[in-house]
């Protein structure tokens, strides 16, 4: 007799996965969360927004791309959640928004409860670190579409910012200082290039010891995305910050240009920081030109803040006190001095 189970979908295993993840979801709560997981929708008490004069809701949706293949090949699934949360909440932070809650979506070929619980554990831990509630999610079993060991994850998040505290291009002006913040490594962008270089071209294995990296290739490639959420919220609250940029797909210049008005250009000084060895290794092993590295990878800079000149030193100290390595990386000038309006010149 044909059944749902014989078609490859196990309701019982899905239920067990929910039971295993409850412990971690509970750690990613905020006081505004109403009820627990298991309902058809997550509930969040929005009365907290009454304290705002003009609250603006911010939202973001994203995934982690092909980095999930590294987690699958290494059979290590409790860190990929940091990449998902980082891609979501730090997109909100660039406009000054505080992340309130997120939901996740896990699609897999076969529900393995322990594996699903590990994925959610990482998501929940990253939510707790960034002050975000994990409000709910969905785990979907797709036999025939994905192999039993394959999965993909995505999510969406919502945050809030007071209208008169909104950060963005309209605040940026000549004389502002550009603050770079160190990434933890590749984060979760450019992995199609990275995988092509190391696996397809060089034939390297994930357990290969790489002296330049101080460990195995797999350990480096699975390094979790650094979360900038709370340090950047503190920066915006305490000092004069005009704009921020999350350096993800498209690289440093393209992402920073997204928060510049047409009246200015930015000089970003390459000599102000040293990218981690993994970036040079991608270029060396793959014969990848610098321009292509710049386009695909963060090159060691995970977040950028543009601040008023008299806030530069204090910004670096505040970020350092909160565990973020930061430095003066460049400056803002009138359009035409460093390049066309709204552009970033890496020098």
From TrEMBL:
EC numbers, comma separated: 6.3.3.1
Enzyme class: ligase
Main localization of the protein described in the UniProt heading: cytoplasm
Catalytic activity: 2-formamido-N(1)-(5-O-phospho-beta-D-ribosyl)acetamidine + ATP = 5-amino-1-(5-phospho-beta-D-ribosyl)imidazole + ADP + phosphate + H(+)
InterPro entries documented for this protein: PurM-like_C_dom (IPR010918), PurM-like_C_sf (IPR036676), PurM-like_N (IPR016188), PurM-like_N_sf (IPR036921), PurM_cligase (IPR004733)
Domain PurM-like C-terminal: 173-336
Residue span, PurM-like N-terminal domain: 45-161
GO molecular-function terms, A-Z: phosphoribosylformylglycinamidine cyclo-ligase activity
Official protein name in the record: Phosphoribosylformylglycinamidine cyclo-ligase
Organism in which the protein naturally occurs: Aeromicrobium panaciterrae
Record key words, sorted: ATP-binding, Cytoplasm, Ligase, Nucleotide-binding, Purine biosynthesis
Family indicated by similarity: Belongs to the AIR synthase family.
Record flagged with keyword Nucleotide-binding: yes
Gene3D superfamilies in the record: PurM-like C-terminal domain, PurM-like, N-terminal domain
Subcellular location: Cytoplasm
NCBIfam families: purM
Alphabetized Pfam families for the sequence: AIRS, AIRS_C
PANTHER family: TRIFUNCTIONAL PURINE BIOSYNTHETIC PROTEIN ADENOSINE-3 (PTHR10520:SF12), TRIFUNCTIONAL PURINE BIOSYNTHETIC PROTEIN ADENOSINE-3-RELATED (PTHR10520)
Pathway: Purine metabolism; IMP biosynthesis via de novo pathway; 5-amino-1-(5-phospho-D-ribosyl)imidazole from N(2)-formyl-N(1)-(5-phospho-D-ribosyl)glycinamide: step 2/2
């Amino acid at each position: 007799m044909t059944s749902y189970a014989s078609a490859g979908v196990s309701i019982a295993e899905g239920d067990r996965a929910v039971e295993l993840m409850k412990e971690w979801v509970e750690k990613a709560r905020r006081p505004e969360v109403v009820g627990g997981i298991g309902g058809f929708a997550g509930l969040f008490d929005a009365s907290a927004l009454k304290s705002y004069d003009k609250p603006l809701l911010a939202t973001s949706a994203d995934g982690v791309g092909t980095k999930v293949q590294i987690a699958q090949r290494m059979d290590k699934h409790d860190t990929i959640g940091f990449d998902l949360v980082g891609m979501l909440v730090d997109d909100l932070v660039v406009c000054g928004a505080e992340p309130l809650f997120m939901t996740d979506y896990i699609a897999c070929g076969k529900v393995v409860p322990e594996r699903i619980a590990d994925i959610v554990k990482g998501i929940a831990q990253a939510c707790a670190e960034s002050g975000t509630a994990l409000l709910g999610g969905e785990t979907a079993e797709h036999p025939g579409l994905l192999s039993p060991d394959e999965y993909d994850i995505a999510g969406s998040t919502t945050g809030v910012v007071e209208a008169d505290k909104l950060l963005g291009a309209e605040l940026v002006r000549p004389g502002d200082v550009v603050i770079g913040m160190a990434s933890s490594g590749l984060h979760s962008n450019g992995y199609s290039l990275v995988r092509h270089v190391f696996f397809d071209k060089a034939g390297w294995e994930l357990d290969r010891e790489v002296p330049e990296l101080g460990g195995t290739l797999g350990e480096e490639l699975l390094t979790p995305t650094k979360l900038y959420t709370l340090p950047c919220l503190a920066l915006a609250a305490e000092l004069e910050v005009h704009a921020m940029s999350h350096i993800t797909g498209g690289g440093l210049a393209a992402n920073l240009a997204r928060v510049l008005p047409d009246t200015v250009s930015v000089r970003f000084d390459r000599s102000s920081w040293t990218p981690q060895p993994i970036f040079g290794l991608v270029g060396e092993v793959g014969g990848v030109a610098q321009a292509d590295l710049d386009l695909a990878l963060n090159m060691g800079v995970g977040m950028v803040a543009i601040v008023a000149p008299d806030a530069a030193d204090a910004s670096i100290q505040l970020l350092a006190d909160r565990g973020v390595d930061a430095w003066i990386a460049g400056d803002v000038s009138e359009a035409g001095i460093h390049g066309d309006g709204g552009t970033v010149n890496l020098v």
